[in-house]
Amino acid sequence: MDGPATASEVIASEASASVAPPLARVPLVLNKRNFDWVTNRISGAVENPTPRWWWVAFAITSAIATFGLTCIGYQISTGVGTWGLNSPVGWAWDITNFVFWIGIGHAGTLISAILFLLRQKWRTSINRSAEAMTLFAVICAAIFPGIHVGRVWMAWFLAPVPNQYAIWPNFRSPLLWDVFAVSTYFSVSVLFWYTGLIPDLGTLRDRATSKIKKFFYGIFALGWRGSNRHWRHYEMAYLLLAGLSTPLVLSVHSVVSFDFATSVIPTWHTTIFPPYFVAGAIFGGFAMVLTLMIPARAIFKLQDIITPQHIDKMAKIILLTGSIVAYAYAMEFFIAWYSGNQYEKFAFYNRIFGPYWWYWWVGMLFCNTLSPQLFWFRWCRRNIFVVYFVCMCVNAGMWFERFIIIVGGLHRDFLPSSWGLFTPTWVDIWTFIGTFGIFLSLFLLFIRFAPMIAMSEVKIVLPEADPHYVPPEEHHPVTAGGKERT
Amino acid sequence: MSDRSHVLPAPEGEYFENTRFAGLSILCGLIGLVGLVLSFIGAYRSPVQFSYSWLFGFFFFFTLCIGCLFWTIVHHVVDAEWSVVVRRQLENIALLLPVLGVLFLPIWFWRAYLYRWMDVPRGVDPLLDAKRGYLNWEFFLFRAVFFFVVLTVLAYLLRRFSVRQDHDGNPQFTIWMRKAAFVGLPLFALCLTFGAFDWVMSLNWHWFSTMWGPYIFAGTAGSSMALLILVTAALQRAGYLKDVVTIEHYHIMGKWLLAFTVFWAYIGFSQYMLYWYADIPEETQYYIVRNTESWNVLSWFLVIGRFFVPFAILLWRATKKNLTWLCTLAGWIVCMQLLDVYVIVLPALHGTGVHLSILDFLPLIGIGGTLAFFYLRIVGQTSLFPVRDPRLIESLRLTN
Questions:
Q1: How far apart are CA B206 and CA B211, in angstroms?
Q2: B208 and A270 in contact by Cβ < 8 A?
Q3: A172, B33, B54, B390: which could join B363 in a potential S-S bond, CB 3.0 to 4.6 Å?
Q4: Distances from the Cα of B40 to the Cαs of A473, B33, B49, B110, in angstroms?
Q5: Of A19, A103, A42, which is closest to residue A484 (Cα–Cα)?
Q6: Is residue B14 included in any domain, yes or no?
Q7: Which residues 178-217 of chain B have a CB within 8 Å of chain A?
Q8: Is B6 inside any structural domain?
Q9: Rounded CA gap, A374 and A390, in Å?
Q10: Mind telling me how many Å the CA of A219 is from chain B's nearest CA?
Q11: Which residues contact B217 (CB under 8 A, 6 or more apart)?
Q12: Structural domain of residue B327, as residue ranges?
């Protein structure tokens, strides 16, 4: 068969077998940036004086957030009547916003956990900020189930309180499962995010110039010294958390889909909902990651770390998940017709031609189904404007999709005399806009106080991180590499 | 794995010696032939039982073969490295799809027993009348032909390009295979979903589930990965691929086995739970049959055997890196796929309980033997791995 080859033969055959240009792997960090550059560039975003644009942006987003919180306060003090809810539409923007935000909170953990388990090294450039975004999105999402119950001071009824309190939580209610699923997801995501941050916090601590910074980064770095032992524990913890997070990526949005699918409402009750919602969540989540990362990479000049290759790959994931969502739409329509059930048939006919027709045509058809199909073409994936356009379409389309599912399922009651439409009030609208304020404010705070890219992980994918690496021309000072890892 | 980088396979590749295994090939062909002949004798005596048993055997092997096509497509779509060394076997098994296309003919000839909706006149069943635009024999036949033509063209093209690359190592073939795979992925989804609707879901034309496609897909992907493990291990046992496929490759295949074990349970649970929860008679009818009488035992066995057992074992890294364990598990999962298809197909005939017939085994043996015979013909035609694939070196050097 194949006899043992000598070393020179191996090298010769490898050279002849080296990958030809069209298939050669492009480095994940461009322009041969070294450890030193990575540390300085990423830490610089935190250490440099706060730029003026940041203050302007933060002033705007925090003002919006404050107004949104005021709306929530007004809604709590006055009652759910401040929203446009009425019979038959008893769920509208509140749950739409909840599902919208919780969906956005999926990309981060997918990138950090599933792509980690799949050994997708390109994830290192985007995982940190995507995870942070996940947490902020889940915070925004968690607001809505809390306040939509009306009497928020009774929201604790959802918690698994002991039975001697005689609250008797209904464990068969998907809303209760939601509380479990979302809180588990949030806790594990926080842990995962924080674990990944520890080596980088250590770097920031070591570089800190003021005592206060050194103190606080020091506390949060948990005494990280970058020793072999620390790295070993860190990597094992990271792997375990990735393993734990992976089922959570699937479970959270599956449970959210159960809120609808366990009912008997036409368009809500269908078996494909769990994977369809998960695919939709990843779809919307990746669009939001790109929405934030494309400007961030330009502002902080991170084009060598978040390269066109990264955007290309994320666009492909958007194409894949968008096509899965389109498949689910098609299945829903087909089975509604195939079932012969007149209520299902009517509900889906109504989705396309009913009073909310344009939500379907614009949101579901154009934004979610057609616009990502542009990503079949390399030119579109490599053109930042096309990518941004599609991401914006997806952001909007996924909100519309949830609205169509929720309100579309309710506004045409089984009894035509009960039919009615939903009109949002200013409180509805501003509460939703307010969550964008909260989300963006938290994100702005994040990029000021924590490294927005996982420095230590990016360094691991640099060629120099390979112990057998031989620089092509001359040696870079090795000390830079050795030191920066701490 | 550092020692492995010193061993590179010979550039001319490795070839399966047809002459060495001529006996096995003839044996498989004979078993297949005898199985087929006995099946058709059974068809003469009990056409109803035969038709369902044949569908059971056919659909089981269909999921395995189309699953291998799926993994080939995925390999190209994501530009994978690790699977280069095992890809040729995926291509070989996927090339059995046209053979299955011929073996579909008995379903067509005995369709009156399987798909009774073909014989229901208009006006009798309003639910059927509502879906006659889809469920009519002309369209059914057209779809079956379409599925097999599309799948055959895909399987053929992907293997053809791959084999041609063995000769000249032209990277352009990789690009072409990738393009074919991009086009093939949605076509695969279409064929598998509607094939599953047509051939098994429409056995009870009153029942429906939007999850049916993903459910069949979950079993398909997992069991075909199990088959790949078994085929690769068998080839290694015969003395091939010794320095090509390592335990690292098996480890990855084991991970996919675990992933699709969980995915199958996730999809199966979601479908079951949502129908249980809503409790609408037209939807629960599928599960009521399978949860009563002796079918209930098989259903429970499926849940435990297809999910809990392999999940608990495959979760450990040590078992995924132990060839004996992994092959045992892979064999078990293929058996569970067999059981899954059995519980899907046969209750449509024996609604009151399991009614095992000798005919359930004959088509299985006949189709299996025939496919094994053709596989042994195909496998010797080319090198056992894509010897000039541009990513071969990376695949050989795989570490987890």
A1: 15
A2: no
A3: B54
A4: 73, 11, 11, 11
A5: A42
A6: no
A7: 182, 186, 189, 193, 197, 208-214
A8: no
A9: 8
A10: 34
A11: B70, B189, B192, B193
A12: 22-396
Residue B73 near residue B159, CB atoms below 8 Å: no
B397 part of contact set with chain A, CB < 8 Å: no
Tell me the backbone φ, ψ of residue A44, rounded to 5 degrees: -55, -35
- Decide if B357 is inside a domain: yes
For residue A7, the distance in angstroms to the closest alpha carbon of chain B comes to 7
Tell me if A271 and B270 make a contact (CB, 8 A cut-off): yes
Q: Is residue B391 part of a domain?
A: yes
Asked if B126 lies within 8 A of A340 by C-beta distance, the reply is yes
Residue A256: CA count within 13 A, CB half-sphere: 34
Tokens 């985007």 belong to: A126
Q: Is the pTM of this model over 0.90?
A: yes
Q: Give the distance between the most distant pair of CA atoms in chain A.
A: 86
CA distance B199 to B212: 12
Do the Cβ atoms of B227 and B335 come closer than 8 Å?
no
Rounded (5°) CA angle A307-A310-A314: 150
Mean pLDDT to the nearest integer, B34-45: 94
From the list B172, B186, B274, the residue facing A261 with the nearest CB is B274
Cβ distance of A338 and B280 shorter than 8 Å:
no
Count of beta carbons in the 10 Å neighbourhood of residue A132: 22
Choose among B6, B131, B213: nearest Cβ to A340.
B131
> Is the CB of B262 less than 8 angstroms away from the CB of A339?
no
E runs forming strands in A38-112: none
When divided into structural domains, chain B yields a total of 1
Residue A307 CA: distances (Å) to CA of A185, A260, A425, B79: 30, 40, 43, 19
SS3 track for B175-188 = HHHHHHHHHHHHHH
Partners of residue A372 in chain B, C-beta under 8 Å: none
CB pairs under 8 A between A and B: 115
Cβ contact A23–B209 (<8 Å): no
CB B399 within 8 A of CB B2: no
A→B interface, C-beta within 8 Å: 1-5, 7, 9-10, 13-14, 17-20, 22-23, 117, 119, 247, 250, 254, 258, 261-264, 269-275, 323, 327-328, 331-332, 335, 337-341, 376
CA dihedral A211, A217, A218, A223 (to 10 degrees): -160
Question: Residues of A with CB below 8 A from B191's CB?
Answer: none
Tokens of B170: 């032209």
Instruction: Say whether A483 sits in a helix, a strand or coil.
Output: helix
Contact A271 B275 (CB under 8 A): yes
What string of pLDDT tens digits covers the 486 residues of chain A?
A: 344 443 334 433 444 445 666 788 888 888 888 889 999 999 999 999 999 999 999 999 999 999 999 999 999 999 999 999 988 999 999 999 999 999 999 888 888 888 999 888 899 999 999 999 999 999 999 999 889 888 888 888 877 777 778 888 888 888 889 888 999 999 999 999 999 999 999 999 999 999 999 999 999 999 999 999 999 999 999 999 999 999 998 899 999 999 999 999 999 999 999 999 999 999 999 999 999 999 999 999 999 999 999 999 999 999 999 999 999 999 999 999 999 899 999 999 999 999 999 999 999 999 999 999 999 999 999 999 999 999 999 999 999 999 999 999 999 988 889 999 999 999 999 999 999 999 999 999 999 999 999 999 999 889 888 888 887 765 555 444 444 333
SS3 B386: coil
pLDDT of residue A12: 39
Residue of A nearest to B127 (CA): A340
B131 contacts chain A (CB < 8 A): yes
Query: Which of B170, B274, B384 should be substituted to probe chain A, the one whose Cβ sees the most A Cβ atoms within 10 Å?
Result: B274
Length of chain B (residues): 400
